[in-house]
Amino acid sequence: MSQIKFFPLKFKLFLLLFLIVFSVSGLLATFQYFTMNNSVEEDFAQKRKLVHDRAVTMIRNADYVNLLNEKPIDEQAKIILNNIRDEYKRKNSIDFDIASFLNGSEQFQLYVIDSSNTIIWSTDQNDLGLNFSDFPDFIQYLDEIRASGSFTSSRVSLSINSGDLTKYCYIPSFDGNYIFETGTKMESNNTYATNVTFEDFEHQLLEENSFVSSILLYDYQGVTYKKDGNGDNIKISSSKEQYFNQALNTMETVVVEGTYENVKAYYEYIPYEIIGARGANERNVIEVIYNNQAALEKLKRTEIIIAAVVFLCAVIIAFIGYYIASKLVKPVEELTEGAKQVAAGNLSYRFTMRANDEIAILGGQFNKMTEERYQFEEDLKNKNHEIFTQKEEITALYEETSALYEETTALNEELEELLRQNSNSYFETVRALANAIDEKDAYTGGHCERVMGYSVKIAEELGLNDDQINDLKFGSILHDIGKIGIAEEILNKEGKLTPEEYDEIKKHPVKGDNILRDLNFLTDCRRIIREHHERIDGKGYPDGLLGDQIYFLAKIVCVADAYDAMTSCRPYRKNGLTKEQAIEELQKNKGTQFDADVVDACIRYLMETGEPSSIKAKQI
């Protein structure tokens, strides 16, 4: 057996102290770094939120200013376009001086669009001959204008050819062959002073926030209201077009990571709906590009500083740790030397320690511990005897408990059998009440049993639990119990009921509820009986409940009751509907009379499994 190499306790203690202090310092430094990193991220997220809200507010302000500027333009354009349409109606031709109707208003451009959606006449020669076949959204808008037959004003949008922010108004001819249009550039019609416009709203945000790289407002086609150095409108890049479309279609902000000018950036696409807009350009998107490079570089410098501080602390700790370990181990070394002397037979050796801690009293305690050992062993024997005695008592108690458990199990099984028999007795009582209903109504024999069968199958299709199905069985078989209080000549009348007779029939849900009010075990079923003629649209009776106000189990009985009534013979209908005809009626009234989920579950059951053999329509 190899001898274990001796390693002084002083060095072990030194290593322990060094590792503990260094580990704590490292953990604190790591925690500090992650805290700062999270703080930077949270600060960046908060600043992005502020810019997001500010950008939306600025666009909203610009939109509102445009709306105010557009009001007088709408009024003047309406007069001009109505006069042109009246002249066309009088001459039944556009062969007249259309431009004369501008009355010298240079702010307006006039256009005539024919039935092929082409500009065939215009005061702006650049737009003459322009066909809108490549703009299906705008063509749809033109079709809506023709269908309306009246003056229509759209909100500001970008001109297709010039890209200028323009206000357009339209009026169709009486025969629909033409649409007369005015266009007004908004940059020359800013009545209300403002520092924020659709074209140049971003300057202030860029100046105030160095972490914002770019802000642009795009129309519905991905074209900005701002022009580049060449005078062309900037378009959304193809790589970001999918995020632009996602924001436009969902009207929810889309955030993606990417690069901007070779630096990691965050792209945010914020949808904005123009106030009162109609037609294609109802929705716009604000693109904001953020970068957090400055904060990340600062965090990197902080990381280097933290690493340097930790390293310097490690060197200092090494020196301090070695000194402390030497001081702490000195008494242990003296005690070890004393133990070697005693082991070698030098009983006259005396410890000369000058410590004032636990080590100083270790030698004095040794003899005392030896003397106490005998008494300790005696006490241990007594404790063992007590434990053995207690073990025997526990064994006897366990045997008694086992016998009691077997007796309790048998009693529980007997109790469960009694409960089952009691539940069957309750149901047979309820079934007897239901039979009393069928006996009174000659045309509905077996109706309650069938409605119960349909209701249970629908509930199983919906995945209801056993307690709900049990309540449903009682409530469905008793749903017409109130008819006991309705005169038989009304129930069995052939032909159409009078309003007074129908009002009497409509009382049976309330009568049924009142009949069962003193039966505690049917408390949860009374809502089914009272509400099974309520409708989803609130037109049912007796309480006119609406939608989710109706008890869900009552909605199931409502569908089951209607299906059985449609497929059975009644005084007012000698031949019941087929299953397919009844399903069609359920579909037709889904969401108005019947709950949609219940109807779908009923149809799934009928189409997949058919009607159970125990559920058959009574044929007379």
Summarize the SSE layout with pairings.
Layout: H1 9-91, E1 108-114, E2 119-122, H2 136-148, E3 152-153, E4 157-158, E5 165-172, E6 178-185, H3 203-208, E7 212-218, E8 223-227, E9 233-235, H4 241-250, E10 254-260, E11 263-273, E12 283-290, H5 293-343, H6 362-440, H7 447-462, H8 466-477, H9 488-491, H10 499-505, H11 508-515, H12 526-531, H13 552-567, H14 579-588, H15 596-608
Antiparallel strand pairs: 1-2, 1-6, 3-5, 4-5, 5-6, 7-12, 8-9, 10-11, 11-12
What form results from the Cα inertia axes?
flat
The sequence of SSEs as H and E is HEEHEEEEHEEEHEEEHHHHHHHHHHH
The top-level CATH class of the domain at 431-608 is Mainly Alpha
Q: Which ranges are low-confidence, i.e. pLDDT below 50, for 5 or more consecutive residues?
A: 366-370, 612-620
Number of helices: 15
Strand content: 5-15%
| Number of strand elements | 12
Sheet with the most strands, sense and barrel status: 6 strands, antiparallel
Structural class: alpha+beta
- CATH-defined fold name of the domain at 431-608: Hypothetical protein af1432
Radius of gyration: 45 Å
Distance linking N and C termini: 105 Å
Mean pLDDT over the full residue set: 80
Helix percentage: 40-55%
**CATH arch. level architecture of the domain at 431-608:** Orthogonal Bundle
Task: Let me know the CATH homologous superfamily of the domain at 431-608.
Answer: Hypothetical protein af1432
